[in-house]
Amino acid sequence: MAEISLTVNGERTAAQVDPRTLLSDFLRDGLGLTGTHVGCEHGYCGACTVLVDGASARSCLMLAIQADARSVETVESLSANGAGLHPIQLAFKDCHGLQCGFCTPGLLMSVVELAATNPACSRDEIREHLSGHLCRCTGYHHIVDAVERALDSATGRADDN
Amino acid sequence: MTTEGAPRFFGARVPRRQDDRLLRGDGRYVADINPAGVLAAKFVRSHEAHATVASLDIEAAAAAESVKAVFVGEDFAGTEMRCVSSYLGFQESAQPILAVDRVRHVGEALAMVVADNEYLAEDASELVVAHLDPLPTVVDIDTALDAGCAPLHPGWQHNAFVRRQIETYGFGDTCSAAPHRVSIELHNGRHSGIPMENRACVAEHDPGTGRFRLHTTTQIPHLVRAGLSWALGVPESLIQVIAPDVGGGFGVKAQLYPEEVACCLAARRLGRPVKWVEDRREHFVAAHHSREHRHTVTGYFDDDGTILALEADIAVDMGAYSVFPWTATMDGGMAMGILPGPYRIREYSVASTSVCTNKTPYGAYRGVARPAACFSIERLLDQIARHLGVDRVEIRNRNLLSEGDYPWRSPSGLVYDSGSLLESLDAVLELGDHEGLLKRQADARAAGRLVGVGLAVFTEQTAHTTQEFKQRGVPIVFGYETAKVRLDASGTAVVSASIHDHGQGLETTLAQVAADRLGLDLEQIRVEYGDTEQVAYGAGTFASRSAVLAGGAVTKAADAVADTLRLVAAHILEAAPEDMVVESGRVSVAGSPNQFLNTSELCRLIYQRPERLPEGVEPCLEASRTYDAHPGTGAYTNAAHLASVEIDPLTGKSRVLSYAVVEDCGPMINPTIVEGQIFGGVAQGIGTALFEEFLYDQAGQPLSTTFADYLVPVMSDIPDFRVAHLQTPSPHTIGGLKGMGEGGAIAPGAVIASAVEDALSHLGTVTVNRLPLTPERVLGYIDAANGSGASS
User: Fold this and answer.
1) Are residues A9 and A72 in the same domain?
2) H helix runs in B211-329, sequence order
3) Which end of chain B, N or C, is less packed with Cβ atoms under 10 Å?
């Protein structure tokens, strides 16, 4: 077992973990943060995406011990403790950007990153940026609507919808 | 008593009720459920496609850290899964829970290792050594049906689960007299729904009461309970099946799986809960497959392109076993029925063979045979148009059913209730800018680019019940759905339904229906589903049925409860029950809006002040109703799709440039949700058309076992969509509703094949007849077109 100490959703956490424990399993089973979903365990589907030191990462391709001394944010960080929905979450709700909800948490975390790094992108650029997230329900159209709206509100662009 | 207010929520684009919890990460999926003392299961699966099981070495696994048990076939002997069709000549298969002496596909479970956690269970599973003696494998339809091929199941005469044939009386004479005929052979790749959540289940058994509780990723909790009851030999009253939040289904989660039975058996043996979470590699080889059809179709037509008769030979590769509750006849039967499609075809001859091979068993995927049937008939229409030199739109206009044809009895015996086929085709040409597409195609060609335009029209049988399923030969006739509505003393309502919502938004749309009938706000309605304890019985969510059937059942149950409100309010207000209006949180006297009771106050009186009730009225605001959409032949949605595609001539990669849909599913409860269903279906259909295929080698080894080999469309593969609606109500259903969950996925294969063929048409004559249109195949078509020497 290895001792790790990290920040998860703003809280300092220390834990004993088996070195082979995936970050996704540590978050879900170790910390009970089941909002992070596991869809493929080989890094393709994007459902397990979290932010590590602000950058998106596949938590199924990372070991928990690699998160030692780092800061991890999961979907639970977006509207914690009964707060209202985060503007990105609200945009997904308003634009019907989710159906079964399984891919959604990982996708939201990538949109958080996109809003921070490239909020002025076009619909085609949104599709390119988020093409590492598989969604089987929506056909993506309403997701692109939602991301466009979320980025517009992040940049203060006029909402012409 | 029918006095009611105007709908406030039916037809409104209200946001979904479940979104807040799903967006916060507060959804509760099966993998999130961990009862106290839960153990983890891992399955050891066959690496051979067809073999006898010589022996299994399990000692090392059994001795590994924390392992509680290693189960093998003999441990569960006597429990097996059969799904028997009543069709004459149907050959039964017995699917073991764990293989006993023989395996019939790669991925079939051989052993089950149960340990303290998934990591340790997987470690131990790798210590199991399976000694398998390979047998000749059967991986294609022709080999399977060859007279010299040994049958794959004991007692079988040949490798067809069933062969069926129908022919109309006038078929032979009509064909002889027809001046033209065109034939085409069509191939659809094997693929499936691939929901983002893999399968999972958690089984618990209480030795004191003998009760089982199974949380599982299913679309059909009541049917899973029925199947478990048969498999386990335990009455249904001792089995509770719960499907909580489920991460997509698309048909792949609409069956009973051996793993569900195994976890129940293991939980009973071990006296502790047993949980299994599938990994993606398992999903590719052990969750059921779908869609592998081969059709040969021939159209007989006159000089102006009027189709006089249709002939079809259908073969479907059903894999190794007949699955519950569908049987191995489902796709072959559905294709026979719907193949004539939206056209005025009177004479028809069709043969259908459900073939057994050494592949993963075959079940439902969104559209069930309709994508293959649409591909066949629409490709045939395009070939007829080309044969006569008639435009593709014109050939359809000459053959599509029109308003005066309804109700239309198809030559396969289906009864189409209503539709707007010509109108939807007209509308999609406008919506998708057909003229503009043709102009851009001409410009692109002048610049040496390969751009094509494709279209398709189809009719989608939805919400079919008793009449349809009794003909299908299935052991359980999926004839109805059930809903229960209960108003409590606070004046809020709980709506329970036998369907399941795994993305379709029924948690919201059923609340919209109930709110209008009960005169409440949406916030006063809670919709629950997925637990077999909630309502008496039902089938579940599949076959585009849930809005129609559960919507109808909710309407009936809510009306029954509202009638009690009317009776009591009329008594208290000294008015006639038939004059009472249930609306906006009040029950009032029609024409005297000041004479009213608040619904919440009325509910409190009914439960807590029974002395205020009129004689003979029980203090109960609960009703359970079923709805069967009589006569059960289905409500027919229709749609027309139009797309443009560009092909990279160097790589053969096709890119969808534009996609437009005009759909008519009758009145819509929530148009935004309808559009989301269409978009999702079309994107899956683009996967069908361009990307998705489970490939096998000749030894029956699957070649598509990761997302690197099996390509699912990603965001950058899919264009923005355009959608518009027509609303022709069904004469059969409550509210005129028609289903539409599958429709989006039905046409894209046909549309994109038509567009690819069109993109190459100036190079030469080529017939696009095989899906998916991978770059390699498209390069083959380009070569064929260039070599054909005949420009059309």
Assistant:
1) yes
2) 221-232, 258-270, 280-286
3) C
How far lies B426's CA from each of B460, B666, B682, in Å? Answer: 18, 18, 20
Helices B748-760 and B775-788: angle between axes, nearest 10 degrees: 40
Containing domain of residue A67, as a range? 2-77
A51 & A94 share domain: no
Residue B497 and residue B261: Cα distance in Å, rounded?
A: 25
Task: Indicate the CATH number for domain B33-135+196-248+253-286.
Answer: 3.90.1170.50
B342 and B421 Cβ atoms separated by less than 8 Å:
yes
ipTM of the shown complex: 0.97
Q: Are domains B33-135+196-248+253-286 and B367-467+631-786 of this chain identical in fold? A: no
- For B31-64, give the secondary structure using H, E and C: HHCCCCCCEEEEEEECCCCCEEEEEEECHHHHCC
Q: Is the pTM of this model over 0.90?
A: yes
B137 in Cβ contact with B358 (< 8 Å): yes
Nearest CA in chain B to A87: B23
User: What residues contact residue A102 under an 8 Å CB cut-off, 6+ apart?
Assistant: A37, A39, A47, B27, B29, B195, B196, B197, B247, B248
CB B69 within 8 A of CB B125: no
- Helix, strand or coil, per DSSP, at residue B69: strand
In tens, the pLDDT along B706-722 reads: 999 999 999 999 999 99
Is-contact B335 B373, C-beta < 8 A? yes
Full strand arrangement of the beta sheet holding B586-589: B580-583, B586-589, B592-598
Token code pair at residue B188: 């659809």
| Domain final residue, candidates A39, A58, A77 | A77
Give the domain B19-27+480-524+533-627 fold: Aldehyde Oxidoreductase; domain 4 (3.30.365)
- For residue range B9-50, list pLDDT tens digits in order: 999 999 999 999 999 999 999 999 999 999 999 999 999 999
Contact B82, B322 (CB under 8 A): yes
Mean pLDDT per 10-residue segment, chain A (161 residues)? 97 97 98 98 97 98 98 95 89 98 98 96 97 98 98 70 41
- Pairing label, strands B307-317, B347-355: parallel
**Cβ A131–B714 below 8 Å, yes or no?**
yes
Write the residue in B15, B23, B720 that is nearest to A104 by C-beta.
Answer: B23
Beta bridge partners of A57: A50
Compute the Cα dihedral for B240, B244, B246, B249 and give only its sign.
positive
Share of chain A above pLDDT 70, in %: 97
B239: its two tokens: 């089995």
Residue A25 lies in a domain: yes
Shortest CA gap B47–chain A (Å): 20
CA distance B250 to B364: 8
> Could you identify the residue written with the tokens 């009589």?
B630
* Fold classified for B367-467+631-786: Aldehyde Oxidoreductase; domain 4 (3.30.365)
pLDDT for B6: 72
Of B509, B161, B545, residue with least CA distance to B330: B161
Nearest CA in chain A to B196: A39
Are B27 and B245 in contact by the 8 Å Cβ rule? The answer is: yes
> Using a CB-CB distance cutoff of 8 angstroms, which residues of chain A are in contact with residue B714?
131-134
Does B746 reach chain A within 8 Å, measured CB to CB?
A: no
Interface list for B 683-722 with A (CB within 8 A) = 683-684, 706-708, 712, 714-718, 720-721
Q: According to the model, what pLDDT value does residue A144 have?
A: 98
- How close is the nearest chain A Cα to the Cα of B511, in Å? 17
